[in-house]
Automatic annotation (TrEMBL):
This is Tripartite tricarboxylate transporter substrate-binding protein. The chain crosses the membrane at residues 22-41. It comes from the Bacteria. Pfam families: TctC. PANTHER family: TRICARBOXYLATE-BINDING PROTEIN, UPF0065 PROTEIN YFLP. Belongs to the UPF0065 (bug) family. InterPro entries: BUG, Bug_dom1.
Length: 342
């Protein structure tokens, strides 16, 4: 940006190339998604066990993408599905992918990753499509949120950060994922619990963990909130300092104090689940539930749970459907309190 400012004449050509690059990237995404939908649609009569499509409604490298890729590997490793294809449909906290899924009515060989972020994103983006418009299959596991600061930050503990934040709420930038997502909600909940004016919450939403990390290391934000696995490598490398995990009790195997241990009575985890398109027959729905249940019980997925330090909270079918309804109500209350989607 500084180079463009200092050398104005050559600025236009790079800008044109940049716009062109963006246009082609968007076009390429549309083509890939259209091809994915067309391919699965043409084989919709095939059993999901022979060919299964997994939609990650986010860019590569994020939490939903990780769940999709791990599911792909587990399904193949344990011989549950012959061919598993993953496609990324990023945008608007997953609601773009959600909209695409609703256009695939009756396709019993398709699943999409969802979770807490999407519930909040539906509210924040005032999405006309909700999780009530798709077919609940299963909740798989939950991931834990973590609050981190740069290694060079003066804040050695959570209390120090919260005191500085309370003294200057508007001037304390907090980074994280999508507006209305888990990171945003947890930041607001922690602020409210500590008496920080949430109407002055300076939350900066990033499209992925990489952008959030770069902003943190560049001191663009004072702290960042994300899934533990998004920052685990950076925490271990000493590039960032973890101040708290977003739970009331300490998470086994994670050497970071919980919010509850530090007298902040707040907990919000990021659950991950799978949903199917609308219009599935009872037989199609049951096949998908059986596939995901077998995956969850298999050794490959159990290794995934342990390796990523997730917590298994599996439920499926109607029980998961009932959970989605109560979760939408719960997140709706939190979002209303924080002025999200108002």
């Amino acid at each position: 940006m500084a180079a463009d400012t200092e050398q104005a004449p050559p600025a236009d050509p790079p800008r044109r190339r940049s716009v062109g690059t963006v246009v082609w990237a968007v076009f390429a995404t549309i083509v890939i998604v259209a091809g994915f939908i067309s391919t699965l649609g043409s084989e919709a009569g095939d059993s999901a066990r022979s060919r299964l499509g997994l939609i990650a409604p986010a860019a590569p490298g994020g939490g939903w993408d990780l769940v999709a890729r791990e599911s792909q590997q587990a399904l193949k490793a344990d011989g549950i599905v012959n061919n598993v294809q993953v496609v990324n449909i990023p945008g608007a906290a997953g609601t773009i992918g959600l909209g695409q899924l609703t256009d695939m009515s009756g396709q019993g060989n398709t699943l999409m990753v969802t979770g807490t972020v999407m519930v909040g994103g539906i509210i924040a983006n005032d999405s006309s499509t909700t999780l009530a418009d798709v077919t609940p299959i299963a909740r798989l596991a939950e991931d834990f949120e973590v609050i981190v600061v740069p290694a060079a930050s003066p804040h050695q503990n959570l209390r120090s950060l919260l005191d500085a934040w309370k003294a200057d709420p508007a001037g304390t930038a907090i980074g994280g994922g999508s507006k209305g997502g888990t990171d945003h909600l947890l930041a607001g909940m922690v602020a409210g619990a500590y008496g920080i004016d949430t109407t002055k919450l300076n939350y900066i939403a990033f499209s992925g963990g990489g952008e959030a990390l770069n902003a943190l290391l560049a001191n663009t934000v004072a702290a960042s909130v994300s899934g533990y696995n998004e920052f685990a490598d950076q925490i271990e490398a000493g590039n960032v300092r973890a101040l708290a995990v977003g739970t009331k009790d300490r998470v086994e195997g994670v050497d970071v104090p919980s919010l509850g241990e530090q007298d902040i009575d707040v907990e919000l985890t990021n659950w991950r689940g799978l949903v199917g398109p609308p219009g599935l027959s009872p037989e199609q729905r049951q096949v998908l539930i059986d596939i995901v249940t077998e995956m969850r019980n298999g050794p490959a997925w159990q290794d995934t749970i342990a390796r990523n330090k997730w917590r298994d909270n599996f439920i499926s079918g109607d029980e998961f459907g009932a959970y989605l309804k109560t979760e939408a109500e719960r997140i709706g209350v939190i979002a209303q309190q924080l002025g999200i989607g108002a």
